[in-house]
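Hi there. Long-time user, first ticket. I'm pasting a complex I've been working with (about 598 residues overall). I'd like to know whether the download I got is complete or cut off, because the file seemed smaller than I expected. Thanks.
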Amino acid sequence: MKHLLAALLMMATPVLAEDGHDHDAPAHAFEIGGLDILHPWTNATDHGPALLFMELHNEGSAPVEILGARLDSGVEGQLVGFRMKGGEMGFETLPPIPVAPDRQLALAPDGLAIRFDGLQVALEEGHHWQVILMTSAGELEIDVMIEADDARQHSHAGHSH
Amino acid sequence: MREIWDGLPVLAQDLMSAGALLLPLLVVGGVLLRGFRPWSLIRALMWRFRWANLLFVLLIAVSTGMGIGLIAQERGLRTGSAQAAEKFDLVVTAPGSELTMMLAAVFLQPSAVPLLDGAAYDRIANHPQVQIAAPVAFGDSHDGAPVVGTIADFVTYLSDGEIEGRIFTRSGEAVAGAAIDLQIGDRFTPAHGRGGGADAEAHDGVQIEIVGRMARSGSPWDRAILIPIETVWEVHGLANGHPFEEGDRIGPPFAPDLFPGTPAVIVHADELWANYALRSEFTEAGETMAFFPGTVLADLYRVMGDVRQAMSVMSVVTQVLVAASVLLGLFILTRLFQRQLAMLRALGAPRRFVMAVVWGYGVSLLLAGTVLGLAFGYAAVLVLSRIVTERTDILVTASISWAEVTLALGFLSAMSLLSLVPALVVLTRPVVENLRQ
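Hi, the file is complete. Here it is re-exported in full:
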């Protein structure tokens, strides 16, 4: 299956180049301990909080727990879940969430997210943001795409990387 | 600065916002009225032209009340619908429109939706993190109320265990919602379908007995009759999910190959976090679709948010029109008593005192209109909430929040500043000419 995906990706490459993709741009896919991290993104904001979204797929043979994330500056991001409580929309802090082998987990708007409070700098649309994802398999620096402040998905959502 | 503000309690933020809105009124009032006691004159003006003043106050009250009523009602409906869906953590259905599926499974709106098969239900029900996997089956009705097939655990969960009588324990028994006009011990025959096209004779011979009644939940399930899902399948001539040798047993587990299908499975997990993992797991292309009703409602509220903004703009436009009417009215009213004001000036009253009388008079009318408007708004919300609750079974509670109070205070404050204009105009009129009139 992986070989098939790789072959399809190679076949698709010239087409993607014609589509105007910038291949010098930072990657959209990362991997740690068998956990594939695809399309990490956030919304532009000038005063936070920032919600970090991504698609996760455990291709390994052991469960991997998502613990949260942190920045080089020391600011920590917590796992939160969107919830309607008492008729009001809000987020609740969640414990680490395991991703079982061959399972997927989507961090997406109005669902699961990693929230950063107290950001010192603005996140500008079109720029990238370096975040360290904390998992039970270790820490990994990922490159987060900053989308528009009202975006509901990564601009490459649906693409295979 | 923003961090300090964000760190304040909500009530403190609201009070400070209200104080900031009232500040212009207080400053102008302080400057104009300092050292003067114009209230006896203002009272006399009020009484002298009482019918015109009353009409003026009512005009302000109705316009303010309309704006407040619209905004408060929209919020009440939004909160009520969200609370009605709160028990529905995760819904799994066949792929399709999340909104249609939510309206069917959570708000019990009639809709033709595809079914999930026994294998899909089995996969959901046997997931280690799933506590309740309730299949629901709808399509029948009694006296306009939906008859919904499900499992006993879901009825207990939905009602928080508050059931008068008992839960159903065999096929042919039912638990009625709080708004159902049937008593424990009553029997009924379900009609096939809902609404005007329901066939009352399709299930002739079937008798279902009410054995319990759920406490009021403020959701459309108050007007539903819940029966074992096996009963729904049996009255439609389908297998009942169990092999023959299991006898009359109802409820899970179901045999996948004898499971006729369900339009939706309501899932409740032990842990909150598990819902998010389950949503990802049960969303399989072409197989099943899992969604949070709260998320679908949030999307809906975003659209409603745009409508709300449009309503707010309409409300502001109405207020501007009223503001123009108020100003015009104040000009007309000051013309009514310009002779008395000219007399005051002829007697040597300071110009600031005359201004204080005119401004104080205008602000008194505005204040009375605004307070009455808040009362009108509350009364309007109370009546509308009752009508909406009656028609939808979504419990909409009437309340006036700080948002409405802020709107009213903003209007009052802005108008109090504009009331300075007629007060100033009075001073420009020649005294002698006014005395002769």
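A couple of notes from our side: The mean pLDDT of chain B is 87. The radius of gyration of chain B is 32 Å.
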